[in-house]
Amino acid sequence: MNGSNQRPLLQLCGHYFLLCLLALICIFPFWWTVVTAISTEGNIFAFPPTFWPKSPSLQNFTEVFRVIPMLSFFKNSILITFWTVFWKLCLCSLAAYPLARMHFRGRKLVFGLILATMVLPSEVNFLVNFITVTKLSLVDTYTGVILPNIITAVSILLLKQAFEEVPQDLIDAARVDGANEWTVFWKIVLPLISPWLATVGILSTVEAWNDYIWPFIVMSKPDEFPLSVGVLYLSGTYGSSTRVIAAGTVLTILPMLAVFLGTQRFFMRGMDGAVK
Amino acid sequence: MMKTSFKQNLQAYLFLAPALVLFAVFSFWPVGYGSYLAFTDYSLIKPTHWVGLDNFRYIFDNAMFVAGLRNSLLFLLIVPIIQIGAITLAVLVNNRLPGIRLFRAAFYVPVVTTISVVGIMWGFMFHEQGTLNYVLLQLRLVNQPVGWLSDDSIALFAVMFVTVWRGLGWYMVMYLAGLQAVPAEMQEAAILDGANRWQRFWKITVPMLRPTIMVCSIMSVLAALKAYQEVLVLTQGGPLNATFTALYYAYDQGLKHLKLPRGLAASFVVSICCVAIMLLCLRYIKPKHR
Question: How much is the average pLDDT of B247-251?
Fold first, then answer.
């Protein structure tokens, strides 16, 4: 960029000051929640508030496992997330492949329909999807939670782009050798786009883990809630014990925070190129 | 275009079939069937009758829905705030200063946090004896603790603030990608010509970001009209129904009170607004790369 070294020191300090101030606003609620979760003494809501843990311990974390089915919540979240991502990768890459590499009638129409789902206000669909899931007797099942979240236009578009980058020669050579489309797809093309599968996988892992509204609508038995739903349920039931709620909250976000911090570049694609 | 054989077509559609079925059931069916049901007295237990515009008459006579619609329009106030905030953040982190990756991560963390946790955490922050009130009291910006989520004239703005807080990082990444597409030579040439930072921002950065600003603003407008998750986790529409939005009303009627047709009528109204805005945008903004 424009030579940060020559910039006057004062300006640089101002820049960092502004960054720190804004970062503070973004992460302060997290900090406060963590402090509350690992402290065991002092009033929670008091002036001045505690900004630093007092007599830290993990007592609240053991407590949260005792008072609510935290282990089940974890298990449910992992199940829902795993199967959502698994089916998404399978079915979206299956759908993206012919759109990118096969000739067939109605390709433009199909592609147009997929694009159209991006334009439709899909957040509005939850009422009819609830009816559909009820009619299919999928209420209170993970299938009901997973099914509507498997296919998204964005994933298909990303994977279509990935398939388009595979050299045509490779595909032609395989076809000439007598490989059928399935073999071409499964043995040759799919392994080549694994970095893209990883991108879609990571982004949709976070998405599936964080999904709140839909599992909240479909699941009604507290034991079967995923974490995102369970943790808010916890705050309704054990409203008095803020420290325990804070501990549950920390446990809910920790896995995705780890995923995000470990794979930051997948979330900020487009950054790498220019800043390198 | 080469002629395609029956076998080729069959193969392609076998690949596509699972995705198309799921799209049909969970994306297209809701639009058609939902629109139809909005004009009926549908319930999960009785036979369905066509009732014409009754549901719409009902919701437009209903103070809660009308207030919700007004609040959804008020929510549009966050669009310029988020966009200006996100551009500011993007400009601040678009460099190679030490530790900049850490700041980018910090700004993005709210985006990868589930909405229920956001609701819990901001519930703590907005508590009458919470940190926000403490800081404002210390800075002498307020004289007594504010009931952020309990005062019906303030609660909606508190909810809107949380939406902004949650959205900034996402749009920041969009703008960062836009900024990094600005050729460095342009900036360098402008420096040689003696343009200062402010001039360079307005004469080079902003015009180059124009397409990104357009896309982000449209997405932000649509998201604002459809806001309801924040309401669900923070206030559940209260206090005194002051934080109802149009779509929260749809949720409240449809799933809490199981008056599905009323909920569907309300979401029909929201969809029509969204589609109208999309069509207007498609009509007046010609994408260059198609």
Answer: 95
Tokens of A245: 């709620």
Question: Which domain, by its residues, includes B155?
Answer: 39-284
**What pLDDT sits at residue B130?**
86
Tell me whether residues A32 and B128 touch, CB distance under 8 A: no
Q: How far apart, in whole angstroms, are the C-alpha atoms of residue A90 and residue A174?
A: 22
For the whole model, what pTM was predicted? 0.90
Q: How far is CA A12 from the centre of its chain?
A: 35
**Taking CB atoms and an 8 Å limit, are B188 and A2 in contact across chains?**
yes
Q: pLDDT, tens digit, for every residue of A23-46?
A: 999 999 999 999 999 988 777 777
Mean pLDDT in chain B?
A: 90
Chain A positions touching B229 (Cβ under 8 A) are 212-213
Cα within 13 Å of Cα(B244), Cβ side: 19
Q: Looking at the structure, do residues A17 and A133 belong to the same domain, yes or no? A: no
Looking at the 3D structure of chain A, how many domains does it have?
Answer: 2
* Chain A residues in contact with B113 (beta carbon < 8 A): 30, 210, 253, 256
A97 found inside a domain: yes
The answer as to whether A179 is a domain residue is yes
- Selected for mutation to probe chain B from A114, A128, A130, A232 (highest B CB count within 10 Å) is A128
Q: What angle do CA A8, A14, A20 make, to 5 degrees?
A: 140
Give the largest CA-CA distance in chain B: 78
Phi, psi of B182 (to 5 degrees): -75, 120
Average pLDDT over residues A121-150: 92
Q: Give residues 183 to 202 of A whose Cβ lies within 8 Å of B.
A: 185
The domain in which residue A87 lies consists of 68-275
Q: Any chain B CB within 8 A of the CB of A257?
A: yes
How far apart, in whole angstroms, are the C-alpha atoms of residue B141 and residue B262?
Answer: 43
Rounded Cα gap, residues B42 and B47, in angstroms: 7
| Chain A: closest CA distance from residue B209 (Å) | 15
Q: Which of B95, B114, B129 sits opposite A212 (nearest CB)?
A: B114
pLDDT digits (tens, 9 = 90+) for B50-102: 998 999 999 999 999 999 999 999 999 999 999 999 999 999 999 888 999 99
Chain B partners of A231 at a C-beta cutoff of 8 Å?
116-117, 120
Q: Looking at this predicted complex, what is its ipTM?
A: 0.89
Q: Which residue has the higher pLDDT, A240 or B49?
A: B49
Query: For the segment A196-253, what is each residue's pLDDT rounded down to a tens digit?
Result: 999 999 999 999 999 999 999 999 998 899 999 999 888 777 555 888 899 999 999 9
- A259 close to A206: Cβ distance less than 8 angstroms: yes
What is the helix (H) or strand (E) element at residue A179, kind and residue range?
none
Question: In degrees rounded to 5, what are phi and psi of residue B271?
Answer: -60, -45
